Amino acid sequence: MTTLNEADAADRRTVGFAERIKAGTDAAHRETEQSRFVGALLAGELTSDGYAELLAQTYLVYRELEDAGRTHTGNPVASPFLHDELLRVPSLEADLEFLRGSSWRETVSALPATTRYVERLREVAYEWPAGFVAHHYIRYMGDLSGGQIIRRMLERAYGYTTDGLQFYIFDDIPKPKVFKDTYRAKLDAAPLTPEDQQRVIDEVNFAYRLNGDLFAALEADIDRYLAR
């Protein structure tokens, strides 16, 4: 007779880790998508500075995440996910310069929610390679998925083409679906125990909450950015 533990183990072998992450974080993902700030942005209801403020907070997150990535070269868990073509900091810097001018760095100030996000990255993304992967997954797989829809909506709403949209443009990834399929295969092959995998799923859920808190903080000040 098959025991429950044996059945659970068989299920994990049948359902890959990438699919388990998707299923285990779907509710948190959907909740994050309900942001009024992002909805107003995509509807063309915000000023360009409102968009720039979102990018400024995003820049602080990616700067920390990509700094953490440089510490994992050669690590068997994290290094398979390190691709230069994914790096977003230079693109964010270009977009912020386009939107706010050459002195844009003087305009970037972390919101409390962003500070908490960055602090979490400092807690887990440097010393825990699988934790780095959890945050890497939510950011870059999102950029290559929903981020491409956002790009097209921003093009229509604000008339941006390349300048202002560099963050969403992956010139060195001409076929995002192929790249994402390969990424998921690497997740499935990652040398992680079932317990490690669950920790990653929990961390992805936490990352979605951090992202949702950041959207909520921007929404709290949305009147400042509404186009008149």
Automatic annotation (TrEMBL):
Signal peptide: none annotated. Heme b binds at residues 22, 29, 137, 184. One of its GO terms (molecular function) is metal ion binding. It comes from the Bacteria. Keywords: Heme, Iron, Metal-binding. One of its GO terms (biological process) is heme catabolic process. InterPro entries: Haem_Oase, Haem_Oase-like, Haem_Oase-like_multi-hlx. CDD domains: HemeO. Pfam families: Heme_oxygenase (PF01126). This is Biliverdin-producing heme oxygenase. It comes from Rhodococcus opacus.
